[in-house]
Amino acid sequence: MSRTTSVELTNMIMIENLTTKEVLVENRKNPSWPGVTFPGGHIETNETIVASVIREAYEETGLKVINPTLVGIKEWPLQDGGRYIVMLFKATNYQGEIHSGREGKIFWTTRDALKNMQTPGTFMEMLPLFDTQEISELALSASINGRRQTTWL
Fold it and tell me: How far is CA 26 from CA 2, 79, 81, 125, 150, in A?
C-alpha cells in the first residue's frame, strides 16, 4: 500500500483592515468557481507556502502582506484519488494600494455584507476557520448523490 498520493496545493488569504473591520475580497471571473471570495491561488514548484501567499496576494490585490498567519486548511478528495488542499492564511499587516487584476475585481467589504453576495460553493462554510482557533480544518467528502459532507475539525 502506497503512502503517497497526488496533491494539488493552493492558498487563500483573508486580508483584514482592523480599523474599518473590512476584509479584502475578489469578485472572481473564473467560471469554475465564480463569485466573491478571498485572493489566493496555486503554490508553485519550489515555492514555499508562505512565499506563495505573499506572491498571490500581491498579484491579485497590489498589497504586500507582512507576516501572514496560517489559520487552517480546507481539503477535499479528487476523483482521481488525489487531494486538493487549500492553506488558509490571514493578514492584518500590509502595504500598498489595492488594484484589480486579471482574476477579478478587488474591493473592501464587511463580513455582514458578504452574506448577501454571490460567493462560490463552500466559501461561507469556510469563514469560521479564519477567526475560530478551535477549528483548524474544513474537510469536504466526495460528493454523494450530488451532496458533499462537510466536517469541521
Answer: 39, 28, 30, 17, 24
**Phi/psi of residue 61, each to 5°?**
-125, -20
Whether residue 66 is contained in a domain is answered as yes
pLDDT confidence tier of residue 17, bands split at 50, 70 and 90? very high
CATH number at residue 87: 3.90.79.10
Q: Write down the pTM of the prediction.
A: 0.88
- Burial group, residue 99, by CB count within 10 angstroms (0-12, 13-18, 19+): exposed
Residues 6+ apart with CB under 8 A from 146: none
Question: 121 is in which domain, residue-wise?
Answer: 7-152
**How many structural domains is the chain composed of?**
1
- What pLDDT is attached to residue 72? 92
List, in order, residues 6 or more apart from 104 with CB less than 8 Å away: 26, 27, 28, 29, 30, 60
